[in-house]
Amino acid sequence: MATVLPDPSPDAPGYWVDACRHLMKRDRVMKKLIPQYGGACLQSRGDAFVTLARSIVGQQISVKAAQSVWDRFEKLPRKMAPAQVLKLKVDDMRAAGLSARKIEYLVDLALHFANDQVHVSQWAEMDDEAIIAELVAIRGIGRWTAEMFLIFHLMRPNVLPLDDIGLQNGISHAYFSGEPVSRSEIREVANSWAPFCSVATWYIWRSLDPLPVSY
Fold this sequence. Notes:
Blueprint: H1 16-26, H2 28-33, H3 48-57, H4 63-74, H5 82-85, H6 90-95, H7 100-114, H8 128-135, H9 143-152, H10 165-175, H11 183-190, H12 197-208
């Protein structure tokens, strides 16, 4: 008997239902995992600067810790916008839980946006790797952060963030009985996910933390 999936949010990417069907057909873990989380789905926050700032805040810490720091940081500027972030005092940013390095990265990000050094209007026409190349030119934005941007802001369907700790841990528990996994093993698992690796990754994150991930 076929599993009936609840209707996703109206804000869901156009590919979401097809992606879920594809993943459930191709992957035994996804077949069990996807129906557990109802109609929830990936949703874009619609603001490039905020998405990248959230990703920087979330680097190398857990989703829960990242949310806690973000909640404090978000209260500092009048509005979470480049010009407002550039007005913040370093001491206030440190008090919110940001390291000195992340503060430098957030300031550099704000400068790039304030000075029109990023080409937001062209991103829709650029492929994933071209966008990654542009973003990693900003201080503090490595491949992982750029991949989070592709998933959470541009909602690109087939991003596989190999360096993501949550993805590594989730695949370890779901596919390898808790044993550590290599990049090649992650790629092997993801072979059946393509061309919807972003969607599968999102559900792997959900398996670790029932609250939807957002950056």
